[in-house]
Amino acid sequence: MKHKLVPVAAALLTALASHNVAAESATDIISDGWEVHGYASMNYRMVEGETVDTEYGKPDYKTAGTHGQSTNQVEFVIKKRTEHQNGVWSDFVVRSEYGNGNSYAYSSPGSQKQEHHDGQFEIKETFVEIGGISFLGEDTSVWGGQRFLNRSAGILSGEFWKQSSGVGAGVQTKLGGNTAGLAVVSADADGTINDVEKDEDGNRIDRNTLTSVDLYYYGVQALGGSFDFDLKFMSQANSDDDGIGASITYNRDYYGLDGWTQTAVAYGTGIAQNRGVNFGSWSGGNDNAESIFFTSYGVLNISDNWQMGSEVTYIAALDELWGAEDLERMLIAVRPSYKVNDNLRLEMTASYGYENGKDGYWGRSGDDVKSEIYNVELAAPITVNADYFGRPQIKPYVSHIMADDRASAKQIGIRNGDSETVIGVHTEIWF
């Protein structure tokens, strides 16, 4: 009888041991690695032999040429991806940036450290995302930290019209086969004084921290494309101001032709006046702030050699926008591109920018009230891949900017007369 029990006991011990091993190894790392991505934009541009600081109204949808002011902008994104035996995964992401917004042509002595403070080294994102947790479901992930959440930008203006930039946390999952998410992101308002400082009476100065509660649902298939829906509820500490922003984005081919487009309409009120869903330290507004925003941009594949990028963007105050009554801005831009061979592309950019408002906005009157800006640019990018988005590339260009009058020209940084010509070489890489 004892001999018969031995195999049974051994089997039980083996089963228990196997269970313990399995339990211990569920969190074992099965893959662990690093990825490095990045971006660099080096814009060597001159006007009559002098570097310039102006972007010629590009952030305000007035021009669409190669007008970024950064002479040496470098961005690195480092991601550590870890996967475990039980299906759980994690990402640790750090995005660093140097030189964004700096227009000086620095030399080797490191004068930027001594004389200027714009565009220094910064950490733009640092967050952890964890997914595949059994009690949440394989399609669900949670994240926490500082990040740019759900960014979208115009293809020729280059302006981010949608994002939540700040520190926060969120959860993302699948509902009905589509991506759904909830996030809370906060950012201290521009100009906020550090709370360790005191006022004249020695009292602590409160921070005007901004907070956005984001709800989003992406990838709804309909009308030959897909729709993305965003809804944001914004508030501000130590203030009665709040706001609501919403947008609908339609993604499809190039209006029925070969290519792609992204078309969006957004609404914002109060704190969300800035294109409705563009949240960050720049956000703010009172009960009078209300705006509507429309944009449509994309790339058309015309033939094996011809492509064309285009953008139409419009933003208007329904009451006030950035304190200006009846303010409206519009940009219409196209960029046809011709592939000469695998390593050379010819580009032409043409844009029309318009701004107008009620007489007296921002103290403007007369010719200052309305502005019309025209921009024509010719370029010959040398690249490793002559596709429209072929990078890296070195792009010699000549850009001519013309305003309807001297008042409009002055607003965008033209110093003499109503026009200016920029000669430059723009170097760019994505990886």
Q: What's this entry about, in short?
A:
Helices cover 8% and strands 54% of the residues. The protein is mainly β and 431 residues long. The mean pLDDT is 91.
Description:
The chain is mostly beta strands. The protein has a domain at 139-194 and 205-322: Beta Barrel (Maltoporin, Chain A). 8% of the residues lie in helices and 54% in strands. It contains three helices and 22 strands. The model has no long low-confidence stretch (mean pLDDT 91). Keywords: Cell outer membrane, Ion transport, Membrane, Porin, Signal, Transmembrane, Transmembrane beta strand, Transport.
State the end-to-end distance. Answer: 71 Å
CATH fourth-tier homologous superfamily of the domain at 139-194 and 205-322: Porin, LamB type
How would you characterize the largest beta sheet? 18 strands, antiparallel, barrel
Label the structural class. Answer: mainly beta
Q: Which CATH architecture of the domain at 139-194 and 205-322 is right?
A: Beta Barrel
Report the count of strand segments: 22
Low-pLDDT residue intervals, each spanning 5 or more residues: none
Number of helices: 3
**Mean residue pLDDT:** 91
Overall geometry comes to globular
Might you state the CATH topology name of the domain at 139-194 and 205-322? Maltoporin, Chain A
Oligomer: single chain
- Cα Rg: 26 Å
Strand content: over 45%
CATH C-level class of the domain at 139-194 and 205-322 is Mainly Beta
The amount of helix comes to: under 10%
Question: Which descriptors would you attach to this protein?
Answer:
431 residues; mainly beta; Maltoporin, Chain A; 8% helix
